[in-house]
């Protein structure tokens, strides 16, 4: 008995198809070869996974929570290995709550660090690995979450600045007249 593959449109024997008991003929509509090829392409796989995630958001959230509860060490390890991603995700979520537009990535922050030569944008102290990502124009004052509105500050300068206007803040430090 032959069956036509939806993907390659060629007629193949039933042994060339995986089992799918929900179908009338008991076989999947795509042959094994085409199915394997579709899994190899990472862009298609990512697009398919994203489509599923959007369609099943609550189900995916629950699965993620369950996985974190079952494997807390694995979750902590991922956070440690991807700290820049975590920080960017948190910043994006905070900006969304403030209804600000824009996003930035960990790579963009690294590029900004290089552009600032590893120094605080205000006091020029060496930042090292501990620095704060500051919105030049604060989110509460209508600033965006775009990389063009981000500067890297030391903890002291960022905590002093808070949600102040950037020009007023620099004037209080004596940098601007």
What does the model show?
The structure is a single chain. Helix content is 49%, strand content 12%. By secondary structure, it is α+β, with helices and mostly antiparallel strands. The protein has two domains: 38-81, no CATH class; 85-172, Herpes Virus-1 (2-Layer Sandwich), CATH 3.30.40.220. α3 (57-70) packs across α4. The model has no long low-confidence stretch (mean pLDDT 88).
Quick take:
By secondary structure, the chain is of the alpha+beta class. Helices cover 49% and strands 12% of the residues.
Q: What is the CATH topology descriptor of the largest domain? A: Herpes Virus-1
Bulk shape: elongated
* CATH A-level architecture of the largest domain: 2-Layer Sandwich
CATH top level of the largest domain is: Alpha Beta
N-to-C span: 87 Å
Order of strands, widest sheet: 1-2
Would you list the SSEs in sequence order as H and E?
EEEEHHHHHHEEHH
Rg to the nearest angstrom?
Answer: 25 Å
Number of domains: 2
Q: What's the average pLDDT?
A: 88
| Total strand segments | 6
Q: Give the fraction of residues assigned to helices.
A: 40-55%
- Strand-residue proportion: 5-15%
């Amino acid at each position: 008995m032959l069956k036509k593959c939806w993907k390659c449109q060629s007629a193949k024997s039933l042994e060339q198809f995986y089992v799918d008991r929900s179908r009338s003929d008991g076989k999947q509509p795509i042959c094994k070869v085409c199915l394997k090829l579709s899994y190899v392409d990472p862009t298609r796989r990512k697009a398919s996974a994203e489509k599923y995630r959007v369609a099943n958001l609550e189900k995916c959230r629950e699965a993620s929570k369950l996985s974190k509860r079952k494997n807390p060490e694995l979750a902590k390890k991922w956070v440690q290995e991807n700290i820049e991603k975590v920080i960017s995700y948190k910043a994006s979520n905070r900006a969304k709550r403030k209804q600000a537009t824009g996003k930035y990535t960990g790579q963009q922050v690294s590029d900004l660090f290089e552009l600032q030569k590893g120094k605080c944008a205000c006091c020029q102290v060496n930042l090292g690995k501990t620095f704060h990502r500051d919105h030049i124009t604060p989110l509460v004052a209508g600033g965006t979450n775009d990389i063009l509105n981000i500067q890297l500050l030391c903890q002291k300068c960022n905590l002093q600045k808070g949600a102040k206007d950037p020009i007023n803040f620099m004037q209080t430090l004596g940098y601007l007249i």
